[in-house]
């Protein structure tokens, strides 16, 4: 079937959504345990789950790498690199050589 390239923005959106859901869960737990008439918004909101989700993506995701800055050409090739592996993609067990090879029709499509 056809594969779709997920951009960095889409991956970050997913991580941000996870962080916001965790933050929402924390806020609802705090709202149930405090007096709503006297509490201020800054007492309820804790941004640590959101920050942790973004840091987790950049620090430990399979799709996050340090950029190769040896020379300008290596930097450009690193930025153009795509991966079929990782979250939402193929696993190493399922990915045979035919799947991992570049198909001749890809050359004109991915730029």
Which keywords apply here?
elongated; single chain; 111 residues; 2 domains; mainly alpha; 0% strand; 5 helices
Amount of helix:
40-55%
Radius of gyration: 20 Å
Largest sheet: none
By secondary-structure content and strand pairing, the structural class works out as: mainly alpha
Distance N to C terminus: 20 Å
Helix and strand run: HHHHH
Query: Spans with pLDDT under 50 lasting ≥5 residues?
Result: none
Judging from the principal axes of the Cα atoms, what is the shape? Answer: elongated
Q: Can you give the mean pLDDT?
A: 81
The oligomeric status of these chains comes to single chain
Number of beta strands: 0
Q: How many domains is the backbone divided into?
A: 2
**Count the helices. How many?**
5
Summarize this entry quickly.
This protein is mainly alpha-helical and 111 residues long.
What can you see in these coordinates?
The protein is 50% helix and 0% strand. The chain is mostly helical and 111 residues long. The protein has two domains: 1-64, no CATH class; 65-111, no CATH class. It is elongated, with a radius of gyration of 20 Å. The model has no long low-confidence stretch (mean pLDDT 81).
């Amino acid at each position: 079937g056809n594969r779709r390239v997920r951009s960095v923005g889409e991956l970050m959106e997913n991580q941000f959504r996870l962080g916001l859901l965790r933050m929402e869960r924390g806020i609802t737990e705090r709202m149930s345990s405090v007096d709503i008439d006297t509490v201020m918004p800054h007492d309820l909101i804790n941004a640590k789950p959101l920050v942790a989700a973004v840091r987790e993506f950049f620090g430990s995701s399979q799709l996050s790498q340090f950029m190769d800055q040896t020379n300008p050409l290596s930097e450009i090739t690193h930025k153009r690199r795509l991966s079929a592996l990782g979250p939402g993609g193929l696993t190493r067990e399922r990915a045979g050589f035919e799947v991992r090879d570049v198909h001749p029709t890809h050359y004109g499509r991915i730029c």
